[in-house]
Design brief:
single chain; about 200 residues; mainly beta; two-stranded antiparallel sheet
Amino acid sequence: MQIRTFFIGLAFLLSTGVGAQTGLTVDTGLELGWWLHQIGAPERGVFKTHHTGSPFVQVSYQWPLRRWRLGLGVRGSLFLEDDMRGPTDSRRRAERLIISDIGFIPMLRAGVQVGYELLRRGNYVFVPSLQYGPFFFQTNHPDRGNFGYQHFTEILFTHVWKRPKRHWILRMNYNTQRIFLREKNHPNEGHQLFSWGIGVGLGF
């Protein structure tokens, strides 16, 4: 409830305070990364997935304020992995955790974004930005009942080529996602997902 209220309030403030000029962008691409479950105890090591792909589709809405860009974004993706391997795993699958029974994990996230037009050259614009917000996913991980708040932080580098009716967009990103646990078996236990990606899209 608090998250929904936050996004509604932010959208209202931006729409009334920044002005009528807005920008809608739609892009799709692929991220490569992995999920790490740090057990915490050094002797137990880490459970992790393969370095796997995640195709995604994202819709963003931005409000320009001079050279600043403030916005909201929603992304849907598929994490293409179904198990995690332990530190002593072998070809016999002796130490594996099933995290999906359908071959992939659906993910959804919503975030706020702050960017700055660092470079303008004719019709070309370069915009570094930072995005933050919660994410949600469907998994069969054995500890899923212990998962608490989940959030992501993303660094984006956006290249825009402006055209009269549409803008061409190329985005590169680095993304980290963290899962907080309600109860930890060890003080250093934690779940994190790391990924790098690239996407192409259109601005309207």
